[in-house]
Amino acid sequence: MKYTLLILTIMLSVANSFGQGFTINGTVKDAGINDILPGVNVLVKGESRGTTTDFDGNFTLSNVEVGDVLSFSYIGFVTKEITIQNSNPLVVSMVEDVNNLDEVVVVGYGSSTKKEITGAVSVVGSETIEELNPQRIEQALQGQVAGVQITSESGSPGSASSIRIRGISTNGDNRPLILVDGNVIEDLSVINPSDIESMNILKDATAGIYGVRAANGVILITTKTGRKNTALKFNYDVYGGFQETSREIPVLNATEYALLANEAFAAGGQAVPFPSVAGLGTGTNWQDEVFQKAPILNHSLTMSGGTEKSTYSVGFSLLTQDGIVGGNKANFKRYTTRVNFNHDLLENLKLTTNLIYTGTNKKGLNEGGLGSVLFNSLNNAPTFDVRDASGAFTLAEGLGNEVINPLAQIENTFNSTVVDKLSGKIGLNYNFLTDFTVETSLQFNYAEVQGRNFTPTVFYGSGKVFNNDGRSFLNVNKDIFKDYTFDAFLNYDKNIGDDHSVKATLGMSVFDTRGIFSGSTQGFFENPVAFPQADIADAVDLRNDLILSGLSGRFKERLLSYFTRLQYNYKGKYLLSGIIRRDGSTRFGPRNKFGYFPSGSVGWIVSDEEFLNDNKIISFMKLRGSYGIVGNDRIPGNAFRGILSGEAAYVLGNKLVFGNAVGVLPNPSIQWEEQKTLDIGVDLKLFNDNIDITADYFSKRTDDLLLQPPVSGILGAAAPGSASPVVNAGSVENKGFEFAIGYSSDRSEDFSWGINYNVTFLQNEVLSVNNGVGFIPGGGFGVGQDPPSRMTSGKPIGYFFGLETDGIFQNQAEIDAHATQNNAAPGDIRFVDNNGDGVIDSDDRIDIGNPIPDATMGLNLSFNYKNWDFSAYAFATIGNEIVRNYERVQPLVNKSIYTLNRWTGEGSTNTYPRVTTGATSNALFSDFFVEDGSFARLQNVQLGYTLPIRTVEKLGLNKLRFYISANNVFTLTEYKGYDPSASSGAPIGAGIDPGFYPVPRTYLLGANLKF
After folding, report:
1. Dihedral angle, C-alpha 327, 329, 330, 334, nearest 10 °
2. 495-521, pLDDT tens digit by residue?
3. Could you please report the per-residue DSSP string of 336-394?
4. Span 289-298, mean pLDDT?
5. What integer pLDDT is reported at residue 13 of this predicted model?
6. How is 985-1011 classified by DSSP, letter by letter?
7. Between residues 441 and 539, which one has the greater pLDDT?
8. Fewer CB within 10 Å: N-end or C-end of the chain?
9. Burial status of residue 770 (CB atoms within 10 A of its CB: 0-12, 13-18, 19 or more)
10. Burial of 583 (0-12, 13-18, 19+ CB in 10 A)
11. CB 590 within 8 A of CB 561
């Protein structure tokens, strides 16, 4: 009995102790960076009592009992609940909520939440950028965002890429408007990708808040800032590695080359150039000689923090990258310094400032087209050695006047372009009368661009166009660009009762840009001089074409804008937004200086309706639509006025005198291009937000395209330096469908994974070209041939226009039965007589290809297991064609390996023509040179390991992560050239490959340190 009483006493004592409250302490941290989180709300679930974390992320909560559930919530983070087991101190790690519908998204002159956005807006966060380690920002958009296509203009270090948002809308400039912290930035090479917090892409009429500059879409970039009440933190990222070519084009070796050269000369009735091919072997592979492994190294340091009233962030970076062609002769260096500082001057008055300095130094080689280094490596004969017996570079004799020794070309190329750019912003934000906020800011850009290009005396071979047999000379130039933007706007944000919410914006903007061009000053030297010592002051003879032309070398343009936006929200589920902007631009004459650009959008959050309240599948569903008019003022200045930039001959006093005349004929009636854009979309989250779907149908019609019609020479358009006037006379339409789906799952605390896929289907059609002839030519092919690309009504812009082929003539009977074709012989390409007149000529040319893809898509995968993380992403382009234009038509240049499959007799092949030095039509532009440009590329693979928290804390760090990654891992394509992803970016002439410098494959080893 006494034992029973003892047990009951103990049990009651224990129960009583557990029923008594106790005090619990803890610390809350950001799981991503192991940094403390001040201001986190800590509540006892089901009760109103709680606390918040202090400056050091610590909290204390009294009267807590075992079994209580503590809820931790913080803006931008997933709410976390912990059941109390005992009174031991807690360490709580919170994870960022990347799918949070309350996340703030910048939309231009303000912000909104993801839930309330009624337009087509895509967001790329800093996490994506950190995974990809791009050298340029554009690379972080490639395959990541539906409706955005990125094509590389060159794979050389520091080279730009073309950004196209929902297709090509004009025959002119298709670049989107890009703003960094509200500041217009045209050249993205000046931004360090590690400084970016987020990129928001406005793709539909909601971009109309930017009016005349929004027709090609808008990209809003926000740089990193500090966090209030946070101690000074450091973030150091470093990676290094090497680059190599992702592909070489198979060409003939020395023996194959000599045999085919003999065959061609014999077929042309000439003596063979290689009577004996014994001992030639494989010869020189010029691509092996030109391509090399090139190093790349990047350092990035960010310091950030904040006090109760201020936040600050300072970043430094250094990127240095050699070229896979030319090595240090193609080096690119970028230095950046960024400072962001925000301060609460008063409780309702805030100061925002930022400043970015970027310095770049780019060395370059002749990269694309006739005479480029790669062109010469493909066409130079493999029978030549790199150097002769004396050690001098060999001469490419007998290969025409353009092909030279590419190693000699690299050796004798000396140039550099140095850019110093300073961008900044200062702004004030003042809240008054509870619901009103007035904001004003002044942004500026100042850039100096200095170029030096040195040409020594050099001899590459007989008759070569690149020879310099005279004096060495130096070209120098210095151009200055500066602009400023002044914005002032008033925001009104009011909740009326429980059902109504109104937001209104009223503002104005002034943009002023100007530049000073020094022109290229050419200085000649009497005595030999090396590039580092070459100084224009030592030149014995100077020439400046700008000064000789009598032009000022200056420009100045301005834009004055007024805008307003009204947003209405009823019961949080019925959304309405309207925008109107009035722009006035100095690029247009007094008759059409001002224009109005209205747009509107609506949204319905269906998932908030009662009939979906208990739905277990649909977590969130929003239908939205937008329509509006936006403009495009990206045209050359002064097209509405007459400028004396032409040349003319006058008879004065019975003497012929040369002087100036009107250049491009003026048209005072021109106005900006106008785009009508429609978007209908749905945002959907399923199964407790695990699946995220976005789908959009869009249509963009651009009217009043700016063209130059042919006019009579009597008007002066045929004079040197003159041209036809610019007129509004064309239309283009883009229609398409975007679809993006993502799945994410946290299986446990140790394992999570996600997959995202996006696809865009696009149809481009030119509706009208009213320039008198019905088409606009563009691009180039071969030497002396008509432009291969056209813009014509009923066709995609820039489609390929050439002859259609129908196999190979197998015998003379087939030639006799065919339409008349000049110089045709068995083994030649057979062209189709499309107009049926019995003669093969230029009138038989038709549509033979489209450079615009039918579909683009991207796929992203990520896995996290304990301290390991893995990510990979791929993208693809389907349905576009590319023109092969890197082969020179000369008897003794080298040829691609497919030439081995040439026609050698009746029935041997119906694909590749014979080889001969005689006259044929085989080199005429036809679909023989048009190839399928579709490809799929595994762009990035990365494996990382983060050291355990206990380990890094012993090292005095918050986080230490190591990773290895590979970029441009492999490409699946049938295209024969270097890189199917490359393009000139021209709306008429894209997709013609003159031997594009390939995007390199890159292997990196890196580390992320946070302390």
Report:
1. 100
2. 898 889 999 999 999 999 999 888 888
3. EEEEEEEEEEETTEEEEEEEEEEEEEE-----SSTT-HHHHHHHS-TTS-SB-TTSSBP
4. 96
5. 45
6. --TTTTTEES-PPPPPEEEEEEEEEE-
7. 441
8. N
9. middle
10. buried
11. no
CB–CB of 869/754 below 8 Å?
no
DSSP 128: H
CA distance 383 to 276: 12
Higher pLDDT, 538 or 7: 538
Kind of pairing, strands 846-849 and 22-30? Answer: unpaired
C-alpha span between 745 and 752 (Å, rounded): 6
Please give the full DSSP string across 655-700, using - where no structure is assigned: EEEEEEE--BPP-TT---EEEEEEEEEEEEEETTTTEEEEEEEEEE
Confidence of residue 15 (pLDDT cuts 50, 70, 90): very low
What tokens appear for 225 in the block? 């800032």
CA 341/CA 228 separation, integer angstroms: 11
CA neighbours closer than 13 Å in the CB half-sphere of residue 389: 0
Give the whole-angstrom CA distance, residue 195 versus residue 489: 27
Which amino acid, residue 536? I
Residue 667 has pLDDT above 80, yes or no: no
The DSSP bridge pattern shows strands 789-792 and 775-778 to be: antiparallel
- Give the side-chain half-sphere CA count within 13 A for 521: 17
pLDDT > 70? residue 230: yes
How far is residue 406's CA from residue 166's CA, in Å, rounded to a whole number?
Answer: 39
For residues 868 and 593, the model is more confident at 868
Helices (H), 807-911: 812-817
* Better pLDDT: 320 or 31: 320
Listed in order, strand segments (DSSP E) in 793-934 are: 799-802, 805-808, 829-831, 846-849, 855-865, 868-878, 881-884, 930-932
Structure tokens of 117? Answer: 């956005």
Query: What is the per-residue pLDDT across 567-620, written as a single tens digit (0 to 9) for each?
Result: 999 998 999 999 999 999 888 877 788 889 999 999 999 998 888 888 889 989
Task: Return the exposure string of 392-417: e unless at least 16 CB atoms fall within 10 Å of the residue's CB, then b.
Answer: ebbbbeebbebbbbbbbbbebbbbeb
How would you classify residue 608: left for phi > 0, otherwise alpha for psi between -120 and 50, otherwise beta? alpha
- C-alpha angle with apex 401: 398 to 407, nearest 5 degrees? 80
Whether 169 and 700 have beta carbons less than 8 Å apart is answered as yes
- Reported pTM: 0.87
Phi/psi of residue 546, each to 5°? -65, -45
Cβ pair 43, 70 in contact under 8 A: yes
How far is 707 from 126, CA to CA, in rounded Å?
41
Apex CA 676: angle with CA 670 and CA 682, to 5°? 160
Rounded distance, CA 580 to CA 103, Å? 26
Where in 31-147 does DSSP place strands (E)?
Answer: 35-36, 41-44, 50-52, 58-64, 69-73, 80-83, 90-94, 104-106, 111-113, 121-125
Average confidence (pLDDT) over 874-885: 94
The residue among 482, 464, 675, 491 whose CA lies nearest residue 567 is 491
Residue 250 CB: number of other CB atoms within 10 A? 12
Cβ neighbour number for residue 127 with a 10 Å cutoff:
14
Report the distance separating Cα 3 and Cα 743, nearest Å: 60
Distance between CA 704 and CA 730 in Å, rounded? Answer: 5
Tokens, residue 519: 């022109």
| Helix extents (H) in 201-285 | 254-267
Note the Cα 212 to chain centre separation in Å. Answer: 21
Task: Give the pair of three-digit tokens for residue 528.
Answer: 């030999």
Tokens of 29: 């941290």
